[in-house]
Specification:
Number of domains: 1
Strand order of the largest sheet: 4-3-2-5
Helix content: 40-55%
Shape: rod-shaped
Distance between the termini: 87 Å
Strand content: 25-35%
Number of helices: 1
Radius of gyration: 27 Å
Order of helices and strands: HEEEEEEE
Number of strands: 7
Length: 131
């Protein structure tokens, strides 16, 4: 048997074994990176939703005529927040997040869009108005 040929087959076999081990590790690491990016995006949107809910609760807990300005950031992509009696719903990138708020005295149903500023106020009737 020729020694040069035997070494070549041995090297090819070892490279094949390294590829068998390395490729699944590459796919697993890619999956973990995508998962962490999805979690980061979800947390960023959840923080925005909680900030809006806190602002509405703050306006509700203060007296009539109190108002607070909120600006929805646009750096996390496009999203829409629906304000209804008792809950806020955020829709973004085919996903949905929801939080409950104890305020049930809204003037009507509101749709808030990313990148816009809104004024949340409590009118003379004790209702929350977003304009």
């Amino acid at each position: 048997m020729d020694n040069k040929g035997f070494i070549s087959i041995e090297y090819l076999f070892s490279i094949f074994i390294i590829l068998i081990i390395a490729l699944p590790l590459l796919f697993i690491s890619q999956s973990m990176i995508e998962s962490s990016l999805n979690i980061e995006e979800s947390v960023a949107h959840r923080v925005i939703l909680d900030d809006v809910a806190n602002s509405i609760s703050q306006v509700n807990s203060n007296g009539e005529g109190y108002s607070k300005s909120i600006t929805l950031p646009s750096d996390v992509g496009y999203y829409e927040i629906t304000v209804e009696n008792g809950k806020l719903t955020m829709e973004y990138a085919d996903r949905m997040g929801e939080t409950l708020i104890p305020v049930s005295n809204f003037d009507s149903k509101y749709n808030l869009h990313s990148g816009s500023s809104y004024l949340v106020s409590k009118n003379g009737n004790g209702r929350i108005v977003i304009s």
